[in-house]
Amino acid sequence: MAGSTIRRTRFAPSPTGLLHLGHAFAALTAAEQADQQGFLLRIEDIDRERCRPEYEAAIYEDLQWLGLSWPLPVLRQSDRMAAYDTALTQLAPLTYPCRCRRGDIRAALSAPQEGILPSGPDGLIYPGTCRDRAMDDIGADDVIRLDAARAFDALGIDQLQFRDEIVMPGQTQVLSRAQFLDSIGDVILSRRGMGTSYHLAVVIDDAAQDISVVTRGQDLFDSTWIHVLLQKLLRLPTPLYHHHHLIRDTAGKRLAKRDDSRAIRYYREAGATPADIRRMVGL
Ligand code: GLU
């Protein structure tokens, strides 16, 4: 459990588009789940190519309009590269550089099996082509992968656990080493041109911000296994999780950032109030 005694949650958007109703629900849920002063905002802007300053400005404005407030300064992941670097160095004995592109991975996977390629929360299950390469052989265009089998061996454990307040509350979620290797595999810790990855950055920052309850959508539920494994490897606490349902459109499709018509600011410009938004997302 996290060291904090107050319930501290966060909303962690990426400034790659305007916030929509799904984000409003996620942010309001996080704030509702926090003790007073316990709601934090974090800007997840490691993908420099897709992030835009105007979207970051819109995040602050839309959330304030919704009535939310948070302590300053806001943590921005682009300022945290040194921390991610330190973690990569720490994990180096369990990682390897990988030069495979998506096409190489697809080709390697489709050789023995026809049909749908196996994939998990980090994309296609990596077939291990580069697994024997050493870190000092890393090339400028390589990604860094975690050797998941070696990670479990180093920890001496054969399963992972966490608790979720929404998904089967009261029960411990369990995933075995074999299930991890089959359904997730060797995940990327440092993406090409990024110097980190969502999984690595989120784990380090949730710990650095002393987050005790990670509230986020159920689309990220399976990613949590990666996060729990990284927490163990980096000796960080595993927080409690609160994977909430997703807000869907009338056709049942989950909202995406490109659905501009669902953006909070369009509703606002059309005269909606924050109370209307709350009602629209069922709060
Ligand atoms: N930055 C992620 C997103 O915008 C959220 C990650 C998280 O809450 O763990 O989907």
Automatic annotation (TrEMBL):
EC number: 6.1.1.-
Residues in PRELI/MSF1 domain copies: 211-283
Keyword Protein biosynthesis among UniProt keywords: yes
Gene field: gluQRS
One cellular-component annotation, GO: cytosol
Native organism: Paracoccus amoyensis
Similarity comment: Belongs to the class-I aminoacyl-tRNA synthetase family.
GO BP annotation list: glutamyl-tRNA aminoacylation
Record's keyword annotation contains Protein transport: no
InterPro entries listed in its UniProt record: aa-tRNA-synth_I_CS (IPR001412), Glu/Gln-tRNA-synth (IPR000924), Glu/Gln-tRNA-synth_Ib_cat-dom (IPR020058), GluQ/Sye (IPR049940), PRELI/MSF1_dom (IPR006797), Rossmann-like_a/b/a_fold (IPR014729)
Annotated signal sequence range: none
Keyword line: Aminoacyl-tRNA synthetase, ATP-binding, Ligase, Metal-binding, Nucleotide-binding, Protein biosynthesis, Zinc
GO terms assigned for molecular function: ATP binding; glutamate-tRNA ligase activity
Name of the protein described by the UniProt record: tRNA glutamyl-Q(34) synthetase GluQRS
